[in-house]
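Review form for a predicted model. The reviewer records the input and the model, then writes brief findings.
Reviewer: anonymous (R2)
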Amino acid sequence: LGSYPCRIEDGTLAFDIYKKTDINERHRHRYEFNNEYTKQFINAGMVISGINPDAGLAEIVEIPTHPFFIGVQFHPEYKSTVENPHPLFAAFVKAALQ
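Model under review:
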């Protein structure tokens, strides 16, 4: 339910976390990144590290100069359990411990 593809750019924090380029994640809203502002965000230092290959919409953004800044359009909590935490949660805890 609500699962959409996302293509992750190699060499990004998202790629380091997922260890692959193609993922599927669940969405439960109709929010979208406005592509009219893509150049402004990139010029300000943000990286769009994950894109929906079908719709061309940003799914993951990050700021490489920050110790751990990653934002996603999907809901990682829907694929996370205590015994098998979502990779984003595990990476966040690891970064916080450092």
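Findings: The beta strands are 3-8, 22-26, 47-51, 58-62, 70-72.
Further findings: The CA atoms of residues 3 and 26 lie 4 Å apart.
Recommendation: see findings above.
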